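Review session, final week

We close the course with one last complete record, chosen because it touches almost every idea we covered. It is ZIP family metal transporter, a protein from Pyrodictium abyssi with 263 residues. Go through it on your own first, then we will talk.
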Amino acid sequence: MALTGLLDLQQLSPLEAALAMSLFAAAMTSLGGLAALPLGRRRLDPRVLDAGLGFSSGVMTVASFTSLLLPAIEAAGQPWTPLLGFAAGAATIAVVHRLLPHEHVLLDRYEGPEWGRRKLRAAWLVAVAILIHNLPEGMAIGASSAYSVEKGVATGLAIALQDVPEGLAVAMPVLLASGSRLAALGISVLSGLCEVATAVPTVLLGEAAAAHLPVILGFGAGAMVYVVSHEALPESHRSGHENLATLGYFLGFAVMLILDTTL
């Protein structure tokens, strides 16, 4: 039945595939956020967060290349145009990251020891990083769907799979920072909906301007690689759980590679 469902998805138009897969990914992000709620504020385990970030990083690394950058080079017939998009994607997320308010949003009224402030700052940065990287994830689904519905389905499935620990990863820091389960769930839902908000315009742009598709694919890849390199992977190694984070990375890498080569 699962195989039949996948085959049915591959009969969709690029726009329908991008919308369906981005909504599915958003739902899985929300599911991950729900999983964080029973943990309670005092029983949060940072090992789960680090393993989830490692898994997310592994998936995004493979998706950036096999589902975005390599198809972009194939479509362009040369690497230079996709690499231009790649650089633009990384630069755009770097600017967005620099302009967004970070820890002061939640730390202005913090009272407690300095080590707690540092931990809270790191938790908020993780939440901001997940929100930022869901934008290029949606672009990845949209751009892949515009290139090929099969690629869009494979990318959407892989992203949705890693969105469960990602939803957990974005909800846990908010729960830790605010103590509000409603806020934690709300930010995970919003994080997932960011993917829909970027998937649909990207696939429409890809269909309307096929000549620019290699740049769009490269842009999504550059944005994702920047977040992996600058935020997700380093953050997963800052709490002394490097082995779990590395295991999560390899697991995510293998899952995405299997999905991308078998679908």
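Two points worth writing down before the exam:
The chain has ten helices and no strands.
Residues 143 and 177 are 35 Å apart (CA to CA).
Good luck, everyone.
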